[in-house]
């Protein structure tokens, strides 16, 4: 039975939100060859967790991220193939109201992938706006696990209180929660630090996945107040946030220099040191190589404290996901 196989999670994963997203990330089909090279490089270097979602892809490209991942996984023949773990998130769309709607959604994802989903995740909790909708959707995830269609079940954007509620619901059926992913970076510590989410996950045996560990690219050091900004919504956000986060960027820069690493690598390594699995995105082989450079070394306690002090001194923080619950 599929569910009895162990879910294998590496130290670092790869987020694929940009794969198919025109609006925010400027995707077009000419990038596919480069994305395949990103996939191959990651797997060959032990980064075998790929996080996607059934809502990823703009307009007619909806589901594109899953289609590409399925194709890349099938065509990859190198080392680590057996460890590839594809994690998808099923959206809590308003028209998904029954447990069967989640089972069907996961089967559609599996069809796009051309293989079973390894880790199925609830993309967000409906607790903030339609709490009555959530129970049936979680039942659907548990059904998928019981039917052996997935190896593990995870959640996304849940805070400690809602997580405990979901945990109880699943454990009544003997279904473990493998993972929980939240927005987490030096610029976004709210659910983890302020709400104490890491302690709750440790207590319940749940692995914490950090999405947006580079704060949409703000922590890469590639953008400055005087330089060019990314297009669209990200550019607007960067204009607002960059002036207030200079102390943190200076600290990242100094540590990166002393370590002979890049700012991105330091920011990702910080997430690893905090006991999470970061899933930075990569659209190019260069970005993938840079992400991989966060592995194989660790920041020391002084550097971690310095970074956290600098983060505390920033005027601005990352915008929280509107679906993040308490």
TrEMBL record:
Keywords: Oxidoreductase. One of its GO terms (cellular component) is cytoplasm. Residues 12-309 form the NADP-dependent oxidoreductase domain. It holds the Pfam family Aldo_ket_red. GO terms for molecular function: oxidoreductase activity. PANTHER family: AFLATOXIN B1 ALDEHYDE REDUCTASE, PYRIDOXAL REDUCTASE, CHLOROPLASTIC. This is Aldo/keto reductase. The lineage of its organism: Bacteria, Bacillati, Cyanobacteriota, Cyanophyceae, Pleurocapsales.
């Amino acid at each position: 039975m599929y569910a009895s196989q162990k879910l294998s999670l590496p130290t670092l994963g790869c987020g694929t939100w940009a794969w198919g997203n025109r609006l925010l990330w400027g995707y077009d089909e000419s990038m596919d060859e480069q994305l395949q090279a990103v996939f191959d490089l990651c797997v060959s270097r032990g980064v075998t967790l790929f996080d996607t979602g059934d809502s990823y892809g703009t307009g007619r490209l909806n589901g594109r991220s899953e289609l590409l991942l399925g194709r890349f996984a099938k065509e990859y023949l190198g080392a680590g193939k057996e460890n590839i773990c594809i994690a998808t998130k099923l959206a809590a769309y308003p028209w998904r109201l029954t447990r069967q709607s989640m089972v069907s959604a996961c089967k559609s994802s599996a069809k796009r992938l051309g293989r079973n989903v390894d880790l199925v995740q609830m993309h967000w909790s409906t607790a903030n706006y339609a709490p009555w909708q959530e129970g049936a959707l979680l039942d659907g995830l548990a059904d998928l696990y019981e039917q052996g269609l997935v190896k593990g079940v995870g959640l996304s954007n849940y805070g400690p209180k809602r997580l405990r509620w979901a945990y109880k619901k699943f454990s009544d059926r003997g279904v473990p929660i493998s993972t929980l992913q939240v927005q987490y970076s030096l610029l976004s510590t709210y659910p983890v630090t302020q709400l104490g989410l890491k302690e709750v996950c440790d207590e319940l045996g749940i692995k914490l996945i950090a999405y947006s560990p580079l704060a949409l690219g703000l922590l890469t050091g590639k953008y400055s107040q005087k330089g060019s900004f990314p297009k669209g919504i990200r550019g607007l956000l960067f204009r607002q946030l960059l002036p207030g986060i200079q102390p943190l960027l200076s600290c990242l820069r100094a540590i990166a220099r002393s370590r002979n690493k890049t700012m991105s690598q330091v920011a990702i390594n910080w997430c690893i040191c905090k006991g999470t699995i970061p899933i930075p995105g990569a659209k190019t082989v260069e970005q993938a190589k840079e992400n991989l450079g966060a592995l194989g070394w660790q920041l020391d306690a002084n550097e971690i404290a310095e970074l956290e002090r600098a983060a505390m001194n920033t005027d601005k923080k990352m915008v929280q996901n509107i679906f993040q619950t308490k």
